[in-house]
Design a protein that fits this description.
The structure holds 2 protein chains of 2 kinds.
Chain A (H helix, E strand, L loop, with lengths): L3 E2 L2 H33 L5 H30 L3 H36 L9 H23 L2 H31 L4 H33 L15
Helix pairs in contact in A: 1-2, 1-3, 1-4, 2-3, 3-6, 4-5, 4-6, 5-6
Chain B lengths: L7 H5 L5 E12 L2 E12 L3 E5 L6 H7 L10 E9 L4 E2 L7 H7 E4 L10 H11 L5 H14 L3 H4 L12 H13 L5 E5 L7 H14 L4 E5 L3 H7 L2 E6 L2 E7 H6 L4 H8 L1 E2 L1
Parallel strand pairs in B: 3-8, 3-9, 6-7, 7-8
Antiparallel strand pairs in B: 1-2, 1-4, 4-5, 9-10
Classes of the chains: A mainly alpha, B alpha/beta.
């Protein structure tokens, strides 16, 4: 049987923080999908929605920080509870930044459409990168929901793949730009978008590291060994 | 079974000196075994906190250090509490409990000054030791009151009854009474549970200033207090030492699930 706190209100407060964080994660994930849809032209009307939702995400960040501050002040959490609250405070920041990256993708995508710059390259490379980033974010939130440190470790390792993908896009675009300077404006737009997705991967990796911290009590940041194992 | 011995880092810390080694220690109230095979090393000059639910044996354990259980028939010790550097087993039959109590002072939950003046309370232990020279007593009393952070408040009323002091001041007087005989270790049995937050803070501040000068063992029901004042924490449950380690580790990343459940306030 899962143990509960003697104070049921403490349990309820912790559960609320956990569920609000997952709610924030869900919103951020949807923002990312919508931003990609704006860029690929699948649904440009979503650009306005992204701006509105970004405001809500920022508000959620403030709300979660405030809830965590109060939990610390009122409950003096220790051990697993303390690690959870520390992780929530940090994950909130990562999620908010993923939200910023999504908004950036939406903005650049809109500009590129407005200037007629989109059709020059296919979307396939960015699609690969986007799917990886969204997948990592989704997996990191699932790992948090289940406090699954094994899944979290997988995400931490996966970050390397998205970094490789970004470098490959960059190499390809540099070739285009050298061959034909008229592609530079478009290529730069794509670089910004690919870079934003690569950053999303970094943030998802951070979330994975915090999950390991909560579940195992081990701080694995900046400590990937040569063998690639973080635990 | 002892689940966790002091961790490796603790045992090999280069600057640490062990004040007391507790080896295969058992304690019985008649037929009831209150402490079960306790093994631990207590570092000199550091503050070690004992935490655990009521009835877990932490106060029983604390009282063994100055042989308080000797006074009741049927009580029985097994194993050793070895004091360094002279390697004296405090529990050995040929060791005089009075001598042990000179080396190990105790402060109780409720302040218990003697019905005497402030001065005589602090001088009491010195007189028991045979010190009668007025100038030595005066010097020692002033020093002890200073070390207990009570001198400034008490210096003009040294000959007033100790009961005229406030609760927090009385507790500091009891600490001064302990300090006057230069003990090697002081035992605190929930020293602030009868005090308000301000008096509690001043006792905790005092414990902090004694760090490095005397080895301190403190039993507390307040986990926040253990976290605030101690260098090492031991979690006890049903007479067993479940986990013992650095306070920083115990409160952030305890190794034993039972410790985690206790300090986070979980049940079920």
């Amino acid at each position: 049987m899962e143990k509960v706190h003697i104070s049921s209100q403490f349990d309820a407060d912790l559960e609320l923080v956990r569920s609000r964080l997952l709610q924030m994660g869900g919103m951020v994930e949807e923002q990312l999908r919508n931003a990609i849809a704006v860029y690929t032209g699948a649904d440009r009307k979503l650009a306005e929605q992204i701006k509105t939702v970004e405001e809500s995400i920022n508000m959620l960040e403030i709300e979660l920080d405030d809830r965590c501050t109060h939990l610390i002040a009122r409950r003096q959490p220790t051990a697993g509870d303390l690690r959870l609250i520390m992780a929530v405070i940090k994950i909130t920041t990562d999620l908010e930044r993923i939200g910023d990256e999504a908004a950036k993708i939406g903005r650049i995508g809109t500009q590129m459409h407005d200037q007629g710059l989109v059709k020059m390259f296919g979307f396939s490379d960015v699609h690969v990168c986007a799917n990886m980033a969204i997948g990592m974010l989704k997996d990191s939130l699932d790992a948090f929901a289940r406090m699954d440190s094994v899944a979290a470790e997988r995400i931490v390792k996966q970050d390397q793949l998205i970094d490789n993908e970004f470098r490959s896009i960059l190499r390809e675009l540099i070739t285009f730009m050298m061959e034909d300077p008229r592609t530079i404006s478009t290529a730069l737009g794509v670089v910004w978008i690919a870079k934003a997705l690569e950053r999303v991967g970094d943030h998802a990796k951070n979330i994975g590291e915090y999950v390991i911290y909560v579940a195992e009590g081990t701080d694995v940041r900046h400590s990937i060994s040569a063998a690639g194992s973080v635990l | 079974m002892v689940t966790n011995m002091p961790n490796a880092a603790l045992q090999t810390a280069p600057t640490s000196t062990i004040k007391a080694d507790i080896r295969n220690f058992n304690f019985f109230y008649g037929d009831f075994q209150a402490l079960k095979n306790v093994n631990m090393s207590i570092e000199e000059g550091r503050v070690t906190a004992l935490i655990g639910p009521s009835g877990c044996g932490k106060s029983t354990f604390l009282r063994c250090f100055n042989r308080m259980h000797d006074l009741y028939p049927g009580n029985r010790y097994e194993g050793e509490i070895v004091f360094h550097p002279d390697n004296t087993n405090l529990l050995a039959a040929d060791v005089d409990p009075i001598e042990v109590r000179m080396r190990v002072g105790m402060v109780f939950q409720k302040p218990n000054p003697f019905p005497k003046s402030i001065f005589e309370n602090v001088a009491y232990g010195l007189r028991v030791r045979g010190e009668s020279k007025r100038s030595v007593l005066e010097e020692k009393v002033e020093q002890a009151l200073n070390n207990a952070a009570l001198w400034n408040e008490a210096k003009d009323r040294l000959h007033e009854p100790a009961y005229n002091l406030s609760g927090g001041q009385q507790q500091r007087l009891c600490i001064a009474r302990c300090l006057a005989t230069d003990p090697e270790m002081i035992l605190f049995d929930e020293p602030t549970s009868a005090l308000d937050p301000i008096a509690t803070a001043s006792i905790e501040e005092l414990i902090d200033t004694l760090r490095g000068k005397v080895t301190i063992l403190i039993v507390t029901h307040s986990m926040q207090q253990a976290a605030r004042v101690s260098d090492f924490t031991a979690y006890m449950y049903l007479g067993e030492m479940i986990e013992y380690g650095k306070t920083d580790d115990i409160f952030v990343k305890p190794r034993d699930k039972r410790t985690e459940d206790y300090i986070t306030g979980k049940f079920g």
